[in-house]
Amino acid sequence: MRIARLVCCAAVAAVLLDPIQSNPVHGQASTTQAPTFKATTALVEVDFVAFDGQGRFVPGLMPEDLVLYEDGRKQSIQNFYLVSYDSSLRTSAAAAATADGGTPAERAHRVFIVLFDESHLSNESLMRSQKGAETFIQTQIGPGDVGGVFVNGQMYRGRLTTDKNELIAAVKSARPAFENRQALLAPFREFPRIPTEIDAVRIEQGAREVVDQLGEQACMRDPFLCQNEGGLNQVENLIQRKAKLYVRQARSLTARTIQNLQYVVNGLSRLPGRKTVMFVTEGFFVEESRDILQTVAGQAARAGTTIYSVDGRGNISTGANADPDVTSAAMARSTSFDTGEEAPFILTMGTGGLTIRHVDDVGRALNIIARDTSTYYVIGYQPANSTMDGTFRKIEVKANVNGLNIRARKGYLATKLPPLEQMRGGAR
């Protein structure tokens, strides 16, 4: 079979870099003299993974095995190589030059950013996520890997580092927000109940029929509580107040999360090669933010940043008998009331990452991400439409090989990248 031939082919692969010194996301001058990356902002780079029918990674692909389209127009592939940390796939002697004079080896560093979405993580979710992130750092960060932790509204110490102890200290410094998503949704469970976040949005927008329906249902199910609140009219007023308060607070938390994502994406756009953001969240209010999230994803894709999301709730249930939160019997790890899962999905789909849910062991979830981002192909091309006009452009990578499945980002925002910084080699 064609797939079998590809597995046996020699692949263009990259070798690991020497360890990299701590560098701020926005860069500070270093006096160390060391080899540097050669990089360019002219090409558009698309990294992707290829799987066979059994979900196994397929090495050995060549440019002629693929077709690349931008906005439906076929593009000419100028660079093509494999980056791998698997010694069985790595052939360092076969490093092919890229158009800007560099080599695949110069782009084969791993950059991991753990971004804690503290505004939307419950205490229990944050504790689980911290434990998993510590395990990941201890077991997965190796020589040549660079990491950073975005925590408490900023990049810890304002920089990326190779120092595991510093990364672990950053993880431990995370603190839950006073108001978080689960706290905002908790009143939905109380009388009078609001079934979903969408209902709250409709009420806030003036949908009187929703208020009437929920008020009548509440008084029918629990006449005693209805009478205690002052009757149907007062119950309906309470429903309106709860819905409007939730939407106002949720908007504020969402704005904070999007601001943090933009900060990280913009900072990483100055670094060459692929960057991996591990976004740990419980999801967030997305009803009014789809366009800006797609823009953030498009900017990240343009700069070679892949966003992976991990649901901090772990093994959740959507039913009434959700697993109780370990810190409070009154709280439940449930998705019954919200639509927040759509937000992380927009980010991961837009950048070619994965959304990982229903995994209690966050360390294992982060390991899945590390494996997924440690062996991949890179396509470089000069768009036929070379004008960076700020529009979103769709990308499609197709295989000329039967039975081959491709996962790649869906597009990018056609904007100019800032000057790329030089990643410096040498032990810290």
Key attributes of the depicted protein:
428 residues, alpha/beta, Rossmann fold, six-stranded mixed β-sheet, four-stranded antiparallel β-sheet, 33% helix, disordered N terminus
Major sheet details: 6 strands, mixed
Count of extended strands:
16
Number of helices: 11
Kindly state the percentage of residues in helix: 25-40%
Write down the overall mean pLDDT. Answer: 81
Structural write-up:
The chain has 3 domains: about 1-105 and about 375-415, no CATH class; about 110-175 and about 260-310 and about 340-375, Rossmann fold (3-Layer(aba) Sandwich), CATH 3.40.50; about 180-245, no CATH class. The protein has 11 helices and 16 strands. It has helices at about 1-10, 125-140, 165-170, 180-185, 195-205, 210-220, 225-230, 230-270, 290-300, 340-350, 360-375; strands at about 45-50, 65-70, 75, 80-85, 110-115, 145-150, 155, 275-280, 305-310, 325, 330, 355, 375-380, 390-400, 405-410, 410-415. The protein starts with a helix and ends in a 15-residue tail after the last strand.
Q: Which SSEs are present, and which pair or pack?
A:
Layout (H helix, E strand, L loop, with lengths): L1 H7 L35 E8 L14 E5 L2 E2 L4 E6 L26 E6 L6 H18 L5 E6 L2 E2 L8 H9 L8 H5 L11 H8 L3 H14 L1 H6 L3 H37 L6 E7 L8 H13 L2 E7 L12 E2 L2 E5 L9 H10 L3 E2 L5 H13 E7 L10 E8 L5 E4 L2 E3 L15
Parallel strand pairs: 5-6, 5-8, 8-9, 9-12
Antiparallel strand pairs: 1-13, 1-15, 2-3, 2-14, 4-13, 6-7, 10-11, 14-16
Helix pairs in contact: 2-3, 2-11, 5-8, 6-8, 8-9, 9-10
